[in-house]
Amino acid sequence: MTEPAFLFDLIARQGMARAGVFHTPHGDLMTPVFAPVGTQATVKAVTPQQLEEIGASLVLANTYHLYLRPGAELVAEMGGLHCFMQWPHPILTDSGGFQVFSLADMRKIDEDGVTFKSHIDGSTHRFTPEKSIDIQQKLGADIMMAFDECAEPYDRTYSERAMLRTHAWAERCKQAQTRPDQALFGIVQGGVFADLRQYSAQTIAGMGFSGHAIGGLSVGETKPEMYAMLEVVNCILPENKPRYLMGVGTPQDLVEGIRRGVDIFDCVLPTRLARHQAAMTLNGRINLLNAVHAHDPRPIDEACGCYTCRKFSRAYLRHLVVAKEMLAATLISIHNVYTLLELVRQARQAIIEGRYGAWAEKILQHEL
Ligand SMILES: [Zn+2]
User: Fold this and answer.
1) Which of 88, 102, 107, 291 is the S-S candidate for 116 at Cβ 3.0 to 4.6 Å?
2) What whole-number percentage of the chain has pLDDT above 90?
3) How far is the centre of ligand 1, averaged over its atoms, from the C-alpha of 308 (Å)?
4) Cis peptide bond upstream of 238, omega within 30
5) Strand-by-strand arrangement of the 27-31 sheet
6) For this structure, is 94 an active site residue?
7) Of these residues, 94, 142, 148, 253, which one is catalytic?
8) Rounded (5°) CA angle 106-112-116
């Protein structure tokens, strides 16, 4: 089908860094933007209302998980993902590819697709590019991803083969799309190899997607290698479409990714850390189980404006953690997600005001 127009307005640029607005059917995304992850159509331990209050604008949901349980047909029957999970704002779904390659018990890849066994009950399933798009159209997110193959980053032969397959699958995903109200992003692969990344970015950019994702990074390579690949890819990807770095979300990686022209990020880190009693701050992580917090009346971060920090002491949060109360995960998740949302809001403002370099230097002086 003809790609619908999903407009991306660039508001400001500084070096490679960009501030923009991506228009979606469920609202505008102010970029750079960070998306908390709602694997099972829920950001773990946080209600949609709480997410709204901390200023989240985009949530990611996982195609592989929702396909296996409760099933894409059921989500469609309930009015689609926005209605089902009561998140009326933009949603992004991944293609299911990454989970098939990282989670499924058995997988067999061929040129047409992947056969795999469910990690839940061992049943056999098959994803093809057409199947991934069919599932994602039933889920109905604003942004969906082309089906891709993520290779071992250091294996050149495999990286090249997976990249070529990803390109062929990207074209098939485009052909399979029928809904005009969903943006489809193509994914760049190529491991840690600059020439492969270059070729992949040129090929995917030439296919006319609404936006571009950079896959296969933050999967075991070093940070300098990841940053180098971002520079290679973002010099080629067109300026007038958003760029999404998949699965990346430490404060340092957000700052360095934005510096190199990335607009969209997602990561399970803030909510996963919260369930392990770790609070993220721009001065480093705090383990709330630590006895040093037992009598501490201060909030996690005195500079933070989130609900948790406005109301609760470290002593109370530590008590919840020690008593294994569910509220601990909720309150720490609210704080952690807020911290990353606030970080990208500050980054956006710094780009608009032309002081990104100085701002980034200040953020990166701490061990994050
Ligand atoms: Zn806070």
Assistant:
1) 107
2) 94
3) 5
4) no
5) 8-14, 17-24, 27-31
6) yes
7) 94
8) 15
CA–CA distance from 33 to each of 265, 278, 349 (Å)? Answer: 6, 23, 12
Q: How far is CA 35 from CA 30, 61, 132, 263, 270, in A?
A: 12, 10, 21, 11, 11
Does 263 participate in catalysis according to the annotation? Answer: no
Could you tell me the CA-to-CA distances from 241 to 15, 136, 185 in Å, in that order? 17, 21, 10
- Tens digits of per-residue pLDDT, 186-232? 999 999 999 999 999 999 999 999 999 999 999 999 999 999 999 99
Encode 321-356: b = buried (16+ Cβ within 10 Å), e = exposed: beeeeeebbbbbbbbbbbbbbbbbeebbebbeeeeb
Q: What separation in Å is there between the alpha carbon of 50 and the centre of ligand 1? A: 13
Q: What is the DSSP string of 248-271?
A: ---HHHHHHHHHTT--EEEESHHH
Which pLDDT band holds residue 2 (cuts at 50, 70, 90)? very low
361: enclosing H helix or E strand = helix 356-364
> How far apart, in whole angstroms, are the C-alpha atoms of residue 269 and residue 333?
10
CA of 147 to the centre of ligand 1 (A): 36
| Cβ 196 vs Cβ 159: under 8 Å | yes
Structure tokens given for 360:
């980034």
Residue 306 CA to ligand 1 center (angstroms) comes to 4
Q: What is the pLDDT of residues 256-298, one digit of tens each?
A: 999 999 999 999 999 999 999 999 999 999 999 999 999 999 9
User: Around Cβ 31, how many Cβ atoms within 10 Å?
Assistant: 29
**Residue 102 amino acid letter:** S
